[in-house]
Amino acid sequence: MSKPVIVVVGAGPGVSGSVARRFADEGYDVALLGADQAVIGDLVPDLEARGATVGHAVVDVTDEQAARDAVRRFGEHTGRIDVLHFNPSAFREKDPLNLTVVELLEDVALGVGALLTVAQAARPYMSSGGRISVTGSMAADDPWEGAASLGVQKAGVRNLVHSLDKTLAADGIRAVSVTVRGTLAREGAFTPDRVADAIFDAVTRDAGEWTSEVAYRG
């Protein structure tokens, strides 16, 4: 029996890197999909030192075909995807009177649309017990007007998670958005590692306790 596999989409030095490490510590092999080769290059040896076999690809996840192909390669290589974690979002410091429609749609393509792409690509390699998780944010409910597109992304991706969960539940696959109700920091309750712990706990809950949103309040 092969080890369980997590695919981390939007792999970076923050929450997504902490998620990769948390699951590696629990015996998962890890596939990293990110936009920055240097960041991925830093994560790989750390994960390998924790006992994980690591695959990685550098790709713009808004490039639908490239993202689909990368996820499929992971799935074909491992034969399974047990957890798909989605982390990307765009932070654009523009209020609603200065944000253009083109900019808004560009940001939504990253923070929401790319989840559709990778979930559809991963589905053939997921079976009952599989999980999709998303790093959510309190910006979905209480947006900062200075970065208006972020709240739209987080509200949209949470809504999409609810739909994915309803669609996949009959096959025993569930989806969850972990809403971080605090500001990420280097210390305290909202460090990336603490948020990663919350994501791991949400993903590994018993199916009988499942909800498609979990709030992390620290």
Q: How does this structure look, described?
A:
It is a single chain. The protein is α/β, with parallel strands linked by helices and 218 residues long. It has a single domain, classed as 3-Layer(aba) Sandwich (Rossmann fold). The chain contains six helices and seven strands, in the order E-H-E-H-E-H-E-H-E-H-E-H-E. Strand 5, helix 5 and strand 6 form a beta-alpha-beta unit. Helix 1 runs parallel beside helix 2, helix 1 packs across helix 6 and helix 3 runs parallel beside helix 4. The radius of gyration is 16 Å and the shape is globular. It starts with a strand and ends with a strand. Belongs to the short-chain dehydrogenases/reductases (SDR) family. One of its GO terms (molecular function) is oxidoreductase activity. This is SDR family oxidoreductase.
Notable traits:
oxidoreductase; alpha/beta; 7-stranded parallel sheet; 218 residues; 43% helix; Rossmann fold
Mean pLDDT: 96
For the biggest β-sheet, the strand order reads 3-2-1-4-5-6-7
Q: Using DSSP, what is the number of strands?
A: 7
Number of domains: 1
Tell me what the CATH architecture is.
Answer: 3-Layer(aba) Sandwich
Instruction: Outline the low-pLDDT stretches.
Output: none
Shape: globular
State the helix count: 6
The N- and C-terminal alpha carbons lie at a distance of 36 Å
Helix content: 40-55%
Radius of gyration: 16 Å
Strand pairing plus helix content: what structural class? alpha/beta
CATH topology: Rossmann fold
The top-level CATH class is Alpha Beta
Main pleated sheet: 7 strands, parallel
CATH homologous superfamily descriptor: NAD(P)-binding Rossmann-like Domain
Pfam families: adh_short (PF00106)
Family: Belongs to the short-chain dehydrogenases/reductases (SDR) family.
Protein name: SDR family oxidoreductase
Keywords: Oxidoreductase
